[in-house]
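# step 3/5: fold
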Amino acid sequence: MGTTTHFDPDFLTILLQDHIGGLHVLSHNHWVDVPPVPGPLVVYIGDLLQVKFILFFFSFCYLVNENTIGVVQGLPHSNERFKSVVYHVLSNRKGPRVPVACFFTLHLYPTRMYGSIKELLSEDNPPYTTMALVTSVGTSTNSERLRQLKAFDESKAGVKGLVDSGITHVPPIFLRPPEDLAADSPVSGEPHFAIPVVDLAEERAGVVAGVRRAAKMVGLFQVVNHGISAKVVEEMAAAAREFHEMAQEVKGEYYTREKEKRVKYGSNFDLYRSKYANWRDTLFCAMAPQPFHPQQLPLLCRDITMEYSRQVQVLGGLLFALLSEALGLNSDHLESMDCAKGHSILMHYYPACPEPHLTLGTNRHSDPGFLTVLLQDHIGGLQVLYQNEWIDVPPIPGALVVNIGDMLQLISNDQFKSVEHRVVASHKGPRVSVACFFTLDNYPSARMYGPIKELLSEDNPPVYRETSLQDFNHTTTMDVAGAGKSFAGRSPNYDRLQELKAFDESKAGVKGLVDAGITKVPQIFLRPPEDIAADELISGERTPTQFRIPVIDLKDVAGHRSGKVAEVRRAAETVGFFQVVNHGVPVKVLEDMVAVAREFHELALELKVEYYSRDMSEKKVKYRSNFDLYQSKYVNWRDTLKCVMAPEPLDPQELPPVCRDVMLEFSKHVEILGSLLFELLSEALGLKPCHLKDMDCTKGHLLLCHYYPKCPEPELTLGTSKHSDPDFLTILLQDHIGGLQVLYQNQWVDVPPIPGALVVNIGDVLQLISNDKFKSVEHRVLANQRGPRVSVACFFTLDHCPSTRIYGPIKELLSEDKPPLYREILLQDFNAYYNNKGLDGNSALAHFKLFR
């Protein structure tokens, strides 16, 4: 492409083009050539003028009205009576092509505000846009779009809220970009292909053959006589509609973007990553495999959702048996691979749309799970892409739609097809559908999936590499911005799993990359767009905070006990973070500890490699980079030496010689400090000083010596991603470099290094047993160009000490007005869940709440 598809952010453009040609304008979703004519100049309308589009040459002219050329872009000044043209320029082999464009604009001198001309406005023709500076028109920044997205998100009213407010135009965040409209495949008016319908009541061999044909050819079919009663199907669709049409204040309590929530209502799970928002709201319910408490479901749809879930799971078992036989396998093969083990139910609501041609209900995509079973109402709108044409999937009373997911295409080695599909927006609405995804997306698993070995041969080698579901789902989620690309169609140039393995097997860590002289951050370390977008929202919406992390002087605690307890209480209840000075750990010990931690990481690789391990339980001393390397969304710019110091005696010989003596001395001092802090925290809860110690909170601890090398592109990654700690309490020693930040009132607040001070933060388990009186705050570490940064964290935890002790909210803190917020747990279960999910930016605590 010589110039990509765009429109001009000016009042008017005058173009001189030579004889080569290549200029195309978009008309009715078709590209129209603008041929060079000797002598004339091409004139076209810019966004700021957006008038009835006039294309003319000075020796002669065309007048083409708005129904022929141009697209509606909702930009100011003429109030859309004129149209700004969308165009591009093709590259060519004849060239060079030499055009000269004159832009009439004040872009570099924004001295006044522009909006729709008042003389053009009336009650029947209200303004379509707000006032704007020239610099903000046509060059809408990410931050402006993010503000619009956040305003929509924070309303918690979804698309239905927009429609209820009486809008007559589709808001900009929902508009399909011109290139999508231009590239749209045609919709077949007289389709030569009809979606297969399989009658499950027919004889088995015929049903298997029908399923095989549909799964191999198009990847989507409808089933009748499927065993789910018509009454259940009708009531499920009705309950889904009733939920979405509830009063906002009732359904708003379910609105969230927290990944861990089992039941959540929202609009567009990929809101901050997609090219444009879809005209759709959704109630999401993760039904299996983990036990599901019906009380978590909205009362309005509780009973019918549980019943529909039970019946659709039975149907799923039958479908996987048929699909197994269709592959020539035993009927239980796919079920034995856990394909039917988990499922989620998504209740979609597509409100009537005032301009359905400008957006989509659901944009082009394929499903990332094993299989989808869809209940759709009578409205229609679902389309599949078959042989480059969009084919309608007509609603059939009582039928259910079944489509193959990406994972089933992968394990079938492309025998089955995961079809791309979409839902068009409609004037008719609301449209309601209920999709059941057979997936283990919400269930951490170490199981690897690849092409089924029984399907492979010398003539039919594997088409895909093996993958974990976490890695697959992360990759799928990250591809949202390129909607329409299924897993099968992704570029093979970036093999994430292979790069992770290569990094891991080098055993050199991040420091090894820096020592090798890299000047770019490798792809496995790159933060995903939604993380960066979230940061832009925080920095763009807020003024710099005046909040400072509390500093508590522990000198003469005995003489000022009540005052120190009050300070600890305030810090633990508000931010969950504070620094302590005069804490009893000698300055020399602190300095020596930082020095030896750095020395270890800067040893020659052959000296430290003997400690490199990913063993999650056995080794008490191990060096590695990123404990969650294979689960995380992206790798952190950090290496770590982990040493489990207590409760089981540690043989000093297990510690590296370079840091052995200092580490034992630091461990002894920090354990004493930990005992004092747990006493103060007990009293801050109104308990006896020994209460938390009696609960074994001080019994075990481990040391993590972190090393953050300097980073060539620190804005693209993080030293440690957003997380909270899975322990009772953390005491952190940090050097002078800085970079630690805590998330307080939706702002990232620096935790500045103070010479001689130690940082203390509440852990997840202490928040749990305090029943949310104390806060386990989310925090992170920035990458930096100054490095290396060194820190030593002491985690008070029993992670490595098998225990049958049950932990739950402390009974003395509970009452009728303060019921328990969390279920009782084994620490092993908590830590296993935390380690399986990795540092994914979501708190593990949500998983253990009684009602989520």
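# step 4/5: annotate
Residues 302-326 form the longest helix (25 residues).
# step 5/5: archive (pending)
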